[in-house]
Amino acid sequence: MNSNPVTKFHKDKSLILRMYFTVFMLGVLYSIFSLFLLSAGIPLTFIFLIVGAMVVFQYYTSDKLVLKSTGAKIIDEQSNPKLFSIVRNLANNYNMPMPKVAIIDSMVPNAFATGRNSQNSVVAVTKGIIERLTELELRAVLGHELAHVANQDMKVLAIANFLTTLTSFLMTMFFWNMMFGGMGRTRNNSSGGIMIIYLVTMLVYFLGQILVLSLTRHREYGADHTGSEITGDPESLANALEKISGSLARIPDQDLRKFQTANAFLIIPSALKGEGSMNLFSTHPPTEERVKRLRNLKHRF
Q1: Which residues are catalytic?
Q2: What are the backbone angles phi and psi of residue 186, rounded to the nearest 5°?
Q3: CA nearest 142: which of 120, 117, 111?
């Protein structure tokens, strides 16, 4: 086991480039969209303030909402000394404060980490994952989850989600405007003008959502890479992913619904049950591809 603190990670340069390109494309898309709205006479300042407040609220409360929706309960060290020991060792390797630890009373094997920064992070595991995985596999999974905190994925995705939240808000606003009128005395002051703006907003939302989901998949690959470097054991993470994926395929759908609101945070989301190929609307890459990359990474280590 790697127990020495690691403060600098070796980045996957090709993955980093793809992430930056995705963020760049999001910026280009929404810059063009903003210019389009301004040319149509839409008052953006007020809209930005409303959506910004919504995103800030979500950013600061998402950890509590996820814990509540999954039934995760914060525990103390006496409740599970072994789990605390693993988390503390990993936190030391990441040179971050000890996160809170939570247990979910479910036999569905899964885990997630949440929190806007390392000072407010929580790592949660189900009873099912503790029972199904070996200690090395559980350590590898927790290393992946804490990598999301170390890589500041919550912050990156909050910024990206601001853009999709903006277009979602605008779609709703334009829809009600077409239904009842009143909001939009725009330069294109006609139902046809509002319809064009609405359709363009729908297209931008669709494209933006694809780019944001692509970014979340890149962040998963990044957490696999960082977590494997911290633990020095990509093989155990690959084995854990295969075990979890196989277990999810045998679990009834009604037992998985409890975790639907936390799909973006999970090591493997319930939404990927039965999926073997890349899906543009998935928050996570295919498990098979992640396992393949991890086993290739093992040879590099």
Answers
A1: 145
A2: -90, 175
A3: 111
At 33, which amino acid appears?
F
- Report yes or no on 166 lying in a domain: yes
Name residue, tokens 């000394």: 81
- The pLDDT of residue 288 is 92
| Count of helices and strands (H, E) across the chain | 10, 4
C-alpha–C-alpha distance, residues 132 and 268, integer Å: 15
Residue with tokens 């404060």: 97
What's residue 73's pLDDT?
94
Query: Is 7 inside any structural domain?
Result: no
Task: Specify the number of domains making up the chain.
Answer: 1
Does residue 167 fall inside a structural domain? yes
CA distance 258 to 128: 14
Q: Which residue stretches of the chain are H helix?
A: 13-39, 44-70, 81-94, 127-132, 135-150, 153-180, 191-231, 234-248, 253-256, 287-300
pTM score, two decimals?
Answer: 0.83
CB 225 within 8 A of CB 153: no
Query: Helices 191-231 & 153-180, crossing angle to 10 degrees?
Result: 160
Domain interval for residue 196: 13-300
pLDDT computed for residue 276 by the predictor: 47
DSSP 266: B
Residues of the chain with pLDDT under 70: 1-12, 181-192, 249-265, 270-278, 301
* Helix (H) / strand (E) containing 90: helix 81-94
pLDDT score recorded for residue 11: 62
Choose among 223, 278, 214, 285: nearest CA to 26.
Answer: 214
Taking the C-alpha atoms of 66, 69, 74 and 79 in order, what is their torsion angle to the nearest 10 degrees? -130
Find the helix or strand (DSSP H, E) in which 122 lies: strand 122-126
Decide if 178 is inside a domain: yes
Residue 116: its pLDDT value, please?
82
pLDDT at 115: 84
Cβ proximity of 258 and 103 under 8 Å: no
Q: How many CB atoms lie within 10 A of CB 77?
A: 13
